[in-house]
Structure of DUF2225 domain-containing protein:
Amino acid sequence: MDHLSPFYEKHIECLLCKNEFTSLKIRSSFVKVESYDKDFCPNYKAKEISPVLYNIYVCPHCGFSFSDEFSKYIIPVIKAELIEKVTKHWKPQDFGQKRSIQQAINAYKLASYCAVIKKEKKVTLAGLFLRIAWLYRMKGEEEEQRFLQMAVQEYINSYHNDDFRSSQMTELKMLYLIAELLRRTGAYKEAVFYFSKVIEKQASVSERTIIEMARDQWNELRKVMN
């Protein structure tokens, strides 16, 4: 029997130019998570078999980069802007094969640039910035902090604008994530405020794990601040 590869090719249609291309994905049976950081960053048994590396699709034809969280439709005026700002500057390259951490970072940065032009939801943009921060964490580089700060600002914007409501992000998880990212970036007072908002909802929600995580982090912060 042939050895089954952890990778398979997914056929993608570009949202911008409509050309088809392939991009590697990882079979779920090969994904082994050892632990999660407090901001939900997964730590995989094998770093090279990390789905985070392959979340972004980069069209080799036009350069438009996106994830499954992007809305599918692009209005004509935005399409013209993407062509002007992305496609006209695109130097054909292939992101569809195995990726290093740095190649994944580059793909996410391309996707975040496209997301800003396309005016994707704040929650989608925040998720891109957060995953860039995770990848820098995997590399042990200080750039992680910059992207955590960018992520938390977009999550706060998303929370106040309610644009996360139709996403997979629950309000409780949003509040917790804002609090944890504020804690990680040294904004302790603001972090305590958002952790408190999570704990206040303990009687009305079923996400007990997040409530307990918030309470633990709140208690640790109070010790640091006193």
User: Anything to note?
Assistant: The mean pLDDT is 94. DSSP finds seven helices and six strands in the chain. The CA atoms of residues 202 and 208 lie 8 Å apart. The first strand starts at residue 7 and ends at 13.
